[in-house]
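Form 12-C: Joint structure prediction
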Amino acid sequence: MADSIPSRTHCPHRILAIAGSLRRDSINRLLLHAAAALAPQDVQVEVYDGLGTIPMFDEDNEEAVAIAGPVHTLARKVAAADALLIATPEYNHSMPGVLKNAIDWLSRGSVGDVLVGKPVAVIGASTGRWGTRLAQAALRQVLFATESVVLNGPAVYLANGGAAFDAQGRLINSAARASLEQVLGMLRQVPMARLAGSQPEPVPLADA
Amino acid sequence: MADSIPSRTHCPHRILAIAGSLRRDSINRLLLHAAAALAPQDVQVEVYDGLGTIPMFDEDNEEAVAIAGPVHTLARKVAAADALLIATPEYNHSMPGVLKNAIDWLSRGSVGDVLVGKPVAVIGASTGRWGTRLAQAALRQVLFATESVVLNGPAVYLANGGAAFDAQGRLINSAARASLEQVLGMLRQVPMARLAGSQPEPVPLADA
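Section 2 - Result
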C-alpha cells in the first residue's frame, strides 16, 4: 500500500508520539525521543509534551473544554497525524489514569472522533521486569473500543528500563533499538491520513 | 467474623462510596446515593464528592501533593473507612481515567498505602445495555494490583440505567434495589478497620 503513495520523500509520515506519564525523566518519554532520533528521513516523530495540561474529563463542561485550549490542540494534532505511537508506563496493572483521561477526551464526538480509524502503535518501558505487559494489553483493549487501528508488529516490552539508557537519556540497549526501528518501519507503512483525504471507515457494527 | 465484633449497633460500619464520573447527575453517583438511603442502621455510607479536585498524578511533585490538600483528604477518608464501594461508569471498555488517576494516587506509599488490604465492592451503571461489565473487570484487575480485597458477591451491572431512576434521582428498579441491599449486607460483614487496629497483612509475594 505504501508503494502507491507518491512523493514520499517530500511528504514524510507524521507520527504523534505520546508518553503516558507526566514525569519529566520518564523512561517512556526517553523511549519516544529515541524513536524520534532513530526515525528514517521520511518519518517525522513529534513527541507531545502537553499531557499534563489536559483537564479531567467531565461531561458537564465537555462542550466548552473541547473547542479550545489543550484538549482542542491535542485533538488537532491527533487528527493531523498519520499514526500515533504511545509509550505507556504501567500503574497498577494498567495504563496511568492520566493517559486514559486523554484517550477518554480523544474518543469523544465533541473533539471530532479523532481516534476512529487512526493507526496506533503501543510500546512501553518499565524499570521492573515485566515491561508494561498488562498496561499495554489494557491500552490495546481501550483502543479497540475507540475504533482505532491497533498495529500488529514487534512487541516492545522494555523491562529493566533503567539500564537501557545512558546518563544523557540515550537508548543504548541494542535489542530495544532494533525493536524500535522495526516499529518505525511499521509506522512508515500506514496510509497517509491527509493524502488519502480521510481516515478509513470503521467496520460497521452488526445489529446484534 | 462479624459476630466477634462488639457493640456493632453503637459503632456502624463506615463505607466510603466513590463514583467514577465527575458528572453531577451521573447515574453512578445516583446509585451510590441509593445505597446510602438503603443502608441499614449499622452501615454508614458517605458519598465522596471530591474526585474532581484530585490532581493528575505526577511523580515529580508527588511528595508535595500527597501530604496536604485533596489527595491527603481522600487518602485519610479511605484509611478511616471499613470498606469502599466504587460505582464506575464505562469509558472505552474501561474505567474513566479520572477514577484510575485517583486509584493511582491511593496506591502510593506517599499517601500511606491505604488500599492495601482494604475491602472494596465494585458496582456500576450504564445507560446502554452492558452495564459497565468491562469497566468493572478492568477495575477489579487494578484493585488486585493494589492488594485490595475485592469482595465477591452479587454483581451489579445496571444496564439501561436511565430508566432505573425517577425524575428525583431515586432508584426505582426493584431488582437493582435488591442487589444493592445484598451488596450492603456484604459490606456489613467486613472487618472493622479501626476496631481491628490495623488492616490485614497482604499475602507475601513468592520470590519467583
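Section 3 - Comments
The longest strand of chain A covers residues 13-19. The mean pLDDT of chain A is 91.
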